[in-house]
Design a protein that fits this description.
This protein has one domain (3-201, 257-293): NADP-dependent oxidoreductase domain (TIM Barrel, Alpha-Beta Barrel). The protein has 12 helices and 10 strands. It has helices spanning 26-29, 34-46, 61-68, 91-103, 122-134, 148-155, 178-184, 235-252, 256-265, 280-286, 296-305, 307-313; strands spanning 3-5, 12-14, 16-19, 51-53, 77-82, 108-113, 138-144, 162-166, 188-192, 270-276. An 8-stranded parallel barrel has the order 3-4-5-6-7-8-9-10, surrounded by 5 helices. α3 links the parallel β4 and β5. α2 (34-46) crosses α3 (61-68).
Length: 327
């Protein structure tokens, strides 16, 4: 494992982070046993993964992670998120206290705004977060799903260290505007869905094999039962790109997942990748990617393969909605 620091802090994090949303199970992920989730947390620690990401909105994920880290809190960096409905000066401290209780800890290393809320003044939210930091309940402030407008508004009133965004070979919308702004302001990018919810592992041979719970994004047709957008998707472009990526990986003698993770890890401004794992075995699948460094020529070749998907998606960085919630 390799490590880096959250920008502007002394907080060391592993470049692979365990994304804990799958611990919630449910309609998106399917049934999940809490004991298996806890074993997955322990396997991650054993592998040198020290960075764990969850959210108050992920069902019982915070509670499961708290149980998994109960005897190992000093070895872990915990990131969690406060929902957009809890960003007022009154609600935010209460939400933080509940997350602390769920996680069985007295501090959160990185406390993130999950989504912007344009009905609550950002200065009010920033003030509440700053007070929590001054009280020692959180160590650093981050955001998720902030595009340039909201990011600029927040930077005027607060210090933030990270922006958690969807970023992968198949989702590169942030490259147009958001990534350059993060680089300019020394904000680390934490990438979620770097394997595009299993597509870049080669798990699905065709679009029909993708479960409805994972086929909600704008990559897929609006005809999928759980989709909330109104677009035709880019399924042809996605599976054409996957076939080419699979061939390049075979040529290089690595798995698709290893290559896809190495590609995103080597992009400018990336601090850490959130890799969801539901079992100890799935944790181990992703570890070889840390030692893999792709040549500039290979990085460029992979980017060119996925260019058609990037162009089809346009400028909207919201994975799920046609009318972007990211301003």
């Amino acid at each position: 494992m390799t490590y880096t620091k959250l920008p502007g802090t002394d907080i060391d994090v592993s470049v692979l982070a365990l994304g804990c949303w799958p611990f919630a199970g449910g309609n998106v992920w399917g049934a999940q046993d809490d004991d298996v989730s806890i074993a997955t947390v322990h396997a991650a620690l054993d592998a040198g993964i020290t960075f764990f990401d969850t959210a108050e909105g992920y069902g019982n994920s915070e509670r499961v992670l708290g149980r998994g880290l109960k005897e190992n809190r000093n070895k872990a960096v915990i990131a969690t998120k406060v929902g957009g409905g809890h960003l007022s000066a009154d609600d935010l401290p209460k939400a933080c206290e509940q997350s602390l209780k769920n996680l069985q800890t007295d501090y959160i290393d990185l406390y993130q705004i999950h989504w912007p809320n344009h009905n609550i003044p950002i200065a009010e939210t920033a003030g509440a977060l700053s007070r929590l930091r001054d009280q020692g309940k959180i160590r650093a402030i981050g955001v998720c799903n902030f595009a340039c407008g909201d990011l600029g508004d927040l930077l005027a009133v607060a210090e933030i260290v990270t922006n958690q965004l969807p970023y992968s070979l198949l989702w590169r919308v942030i490259e147009r505007e958001i990534q350059p702004m993060c680089l300019e302001n020394e904000i680390g990018i934490i990438c979620y869905s770097p394997l595009m919810q299993g597509l870049l592992t080669g798990r699905y041979a065709s679009v029909d094999e993708v479960p409805d719970g994972l086929a909600r994004t704008r990559l897929y047709s609006h005809d999928r039962p759980m989709a909330r957008h109104g677009e035709i998707g880019c399924e042809t472009e996605v599976f054409n790109a996957l076939a080419k990526i699979r061939s390049v990986a075979a040529e290089a003698g690595v798995t698709m997942a290893e290559m896809a993770l190495a590609w995103v890890r080597q992009q400018p401004g990336v601090t850490s990748l959130l890799v969801g794992a539901r079992t100890p075995e799935e944790v181990r699948w992703n570890l070889p990617s840390v030692a893999l460094t792709l040549s500039n020529d290979l990085l460029k070749r992979l980017s060119e393969i996925a260019e058609g998907v990037k162009n089809k998606l346009g400028n909207n960085p919201d994975m799920w909605m046609s009318e972007s919630r990211m301003r």
